[in-house]
Amino acid sequence: MHILLLILQNILLLSLRQTYGFKNSNDVNDETFTEYYNYVDLTDRLQSLSKKYAHICSLSSIGQSVEGRELWVMRVTTSPSIVVAGKPRFKYVGNIHGDEALSRQLLMYLIEYLLTEYDRDARVSELVDRTDIYIMPSMNPDGFEKAEEGDCSGRGEARYNAKHHDLNRSFPDQYEPSTSSLNDIPEVTAVMSWILEKKFVLSGSLHGGSVLASYPFDDSSSHKTSGLYSSTADDALFRYLAQTYAENHPIMRMGEPHCPDDPNKHFKDGITNGAEWYDIQGGMQDYNYLKGNCFEVTFELSCCKYPPASQLYIEWANNQEALLLYMQKAHIGVRGFVMTRSGLGLQDATISVLGIDHNITTWTFGDYYRLLLPGIYDLTASAPGYLPKTVKEVPVVEGKPTLLNFTLEETEEAMVMSVLTEQTTVTNEVPITPVPSTPKSQIQSLDFRHHSYDEMEMFLQLFSAVYSSITYLYSAGRSVQGKNLYVMEISTNPGVSQQGKPEVMFVGNVLGNEFIGREILLNLIEYMCRNYGKDPLVTRLVNSTRIHIMPSMNPDGYELALKAQKGHLKVSDLSIFGHSNSHRVDLNTNFPQHTKSRLDIEVETQAVMNWIKSRYFVLSASIRGGFRGVEYPHSVDSIDENLFKFVTEAFYMQSQALQKPQACDVPRTREKKANRHRRPPVTGTDMLTWAYSNTDNLAVDIGLSCDLRPPEESLSEYWEQNHKALLQFIQQVHLFVRGMVTDAQTGKGISNATVMVEGSRHQVHTSSAGQYWRPLAPGSYHIIASAPGYTTMSESVRVLETRVEQVDFKLTRDTSQPSLEEEQQKDLEKLVEQLLPVGALDKFVRSLLPAQTLQYRNYRERAEFLRSLTFNFPRIARLYSLGQSVEFRTIWALEISGNLEMPQSAEPKIRYVAGVHGNAAVGPELLLEFASVLCLNYGRNPTITKLIDRSRILILPCVNPDGREEAQEGHCSSTEGYTNAHGTDLDTDYIYGNMSAQPETRAVMNLIEGSGFSLSVVLEGGFLMATYPYDRPNQRTQNEETLRYLASLYASIHPFMHMGNVGCAKEPAREIPGGVLKGAEFNAHTGSLKDYSLDVDNCPEITVYTGCCMYPPESRLFSLWMENRTPLFRMLLEVHRRLSGVVRDSKGRPVSDAVVVVNGSVSIHADSHGYFTTLLAPGTHQLQVQAHGYQQELQQVNISSDRLTSPIVIDFTADRVPLDQGVLIIASASLMSVLFCALLAWHLRSAKFSRIRDGFHWCHSNRESLHMEAMASEKSPLRQEFLEDSESEDDPFFVERY
Ligand SMILES: [Zn+2]
């Protein structure tokens, strides 16, 4: 009987998980230090940790052991899902010998320690922030399973892998040819390719059987058994590294481990040269050093190889400090970038050190890390095709890396090859930044000159690379000529919105011939980067503020003006040349004065407007020339006038320049006059006036020089005289008033609440977390906070000059008005209904601003593109990684929603997927264009804005990135790239609980399970039609009518698809009625994505084949987009057409365990609030509503094709019948068992087990294998049951059912 209860418990758990849409995966039991983890427990714990701490870690497998166990690697670092430059990569590898078990367990503790202490312990935080840490607890999981706890000498098979190979003897050796067949040592080959790919900087290899640290080399050419010291070129460094560990280990440092093997052996300082101890061939540490760029030391942790579990805590205490300190050594020596003149990183460039015969090479970004002991060194960077460059006397000091970048010149041959259109000045190499001897040494020699666009780009890329921990470089858009409008963000944790940090922005070079702002802002970037951590004011500002600097808003105009200035162009009037953009528009009068202004807005202006609107800038300044002083917007109210005067006054106080008056000075506290420059009549206005009336941002113009184009020689003087005032300006954002607006009942922040000051028209709004900032001059004010649906509140505040005033508002709900929620919902419904007729939708889609991004992108370009979307639209777009492909490419998911931070349980969710087959190359590009159009029109088109605000759109542009890289443009029917890198067709791999699922499959499976999508659309190629589930043969679908309707919807809107016969090369004569088929009628197969989606998440998925050619020429992309864009939008509307409802008892309380059965077949579970939702085809549907203890209720719903269906309410008439426990179990069991049987039934039908018909016998005889299968997915409902399996008898429950 207890089995029945267990099953029941599992069914209930499953239904709960489906109902709530989440898994209780965040629960990680506290570490007890009292047991070893076998493979299953270790896997489970790593997976739980990686979910709980997803912001600072990611789990992946680099391959499998002989017996198919995963070689797990936990990566611990900030931004764990992306490849980052500027962080040295560190690794620990444990349990290389299966019987040496201690390290495996200690590395688990280390992982958990890093994860839990991050943000608590300063040293751990710094380590995780600055280091890219990879930890592999077990390289030999097969061996470990054979080892026995308490076996100290471990003499047996457990030491080796399952093919009897010693893994630490199987790496390529420098003196001897390898003897192992690669097929026999998959663990070694996986680690080798991992080492080569990552180019680790420092590593520890952990063993047992003695207590010491042993460093390379491990063998010599003579292979003398022991006693022969075989030194590397970095011998002193290796001794230092080994000693770092040894001297922090209480036993190791004694040098006398007294192990039973050799009780009298003494190791000076606890360290030894590997070969001197004893000669081994094929060791891992030598391979790391000779082939992998990586310095690795071997640590023997204890005499006993597999000490009893009672020793674990003591051993952790012995090793904890040593493990941490050793990791910090990844930061010694010299590091930096090797770049071309245009600022591109050079991969695989060589870094050599005079006097040390061992070179290292640069990684993907041109970054290198040369570990060195303190001293003075001459370093040389070289790369084929470039002139080598040597920097002499580079100082290395204790405790902090020296930064040294190299810019390499092309060799003459290479120079001749490249056509130089104009003479560009060679950028000087960046001087060494030696570690300051005193903490207070500001660097004043900045880069004072006129930077051309290329030089500015290089400057920005360089600083963002070198100071990557406090900078993020992004582009707010492009100029008419396609130049980037670069913005450098300077902040701790840059690129991430952080509660409590106000944002400030600077813009320069609005007029192209206005050089001063551009150069001063570049100086400001350099100054803040270089003085962060040195100058207290700079450090404080960077720590507490997000500072965004756009040095040039008009790069096109600047290039012209610079050429004219240098005499490269014949120009009659230098003074206005390059003033405007390439369309001859003055950008400073190009901002719309009214929302309905008929002004033609330039792309630069639009980009800046979008940029300002998409962020919460509190205060900003445009840095100008032609006048000196501060100007503020005209027609401001008296409260803001006082504020602007206050800001101005503060600026004057700090400005040395303004102490000596000049002719062009504006009067103190001057209101800006419209159109200061005499231009033809314009309808537009300047940026600050526009910002004042259209955004929360309070902006001023700061003029720094009478001359628009001060000569290069005078730039340093302008900087000297103004930089204090500029820093002061940033500081202003921290005086004034700030606070939170929260819901009094829930305590949650209210986003977009309005905060006003009595007497001022200027409003500010709260951030998504409910935070606001309101700059105000010293004085007394009434501040009023309001939000729709809440009672307005006001507070008095007295603002002093010297400190921040915190004013928080707790608003109570105003029950007399309909809630904002309801109003917005009604609004959106109306809009959606208006768009349902095809003609209306088509017209709407045509009216949207096109993104025009269409082109084929490779993996890197795609990632770059996705990232730029999230940086340009941070409020609505978020990028995250679902996992990695076989070849370690990230599988990206882009989420678009107006409510990124707080997902609502009832919101419609839709998923768009492409690139399941890598050679179906059209889908990824269509989805990127679709995403861009959505983002671009957010805030611009009210319907798009409301749709995004009230939906969650998930875009998976390419789920087979490896295949996509293989595929060839123009190949219509080739199969290159069709599969993943293991040759698996991913659309056959979706089998529930499949342990050997491909990593790409697993990534998507994890997303789908229990995630509650209403609809999914997959883009494919090679045909023209839409298919619906099932793909597997002979499977009846329960809601076929609805599924077919969804596919037809797409096909009917597509201009050609619905015609049904397109004559594709594949089956040219086939007639496809309406362009729609059931998947199994086209290409019957098992393990398909859409079957999985329907079965596991109850989410209907259709597959759209966009055209006969899998990978058409790029020129076809545009017309393919035109054909598919309206249907893509239509599917988004469709999720808003779903039926939703609530189930209640007779007293109006929600019934949480209700099941709604549609047309006698499909079961939908209500959530804890009694809420349920489903998509249904137009027509009449019968609902049976059941919940145990209630009489079944019947209800009929009519779904219209041109109207949205209002939510329905289903009330149980009678109260729950009290039942004794036994009856309750049977009642729920009979209901739930139906579900369970259905679930098991399709398990059995899945490819692998289709031949086995008798579920029970299969369960019984394959318990072991199912157990393993279930492990692959911790969410498997079967798992618990088989874990807790006892010697139970055949269970009658099963026998009866099957
Ligand atoms: Zn070992």
Principal-axis shape equals globular
Q: Separation of termini?
A: 18 Å
Reported for the largest beta sheet, the result is: 8 strands, mixed
User: Class by helix and strand content?
Assistant: alpha/beta
Low-confidence stretches: 1-25, 414-444, 674-681, 1218-1298
**Mean pLDDT, nearest integer?**
82
Hey, roughly how much beta strand do the residues contain?
A: 15-25%
SS summary, helix count: 35
Specify Rg, calculated over alpha carbons.
Answer: 33 Å
Strand order of the largest sheet: 1-2-4-3-5-8-6-7
Q: What ligands can be seen in this structure?
A: zinc ion
**How much helicity do the residues have?**
25-40%
Number-wise, the strands total 47
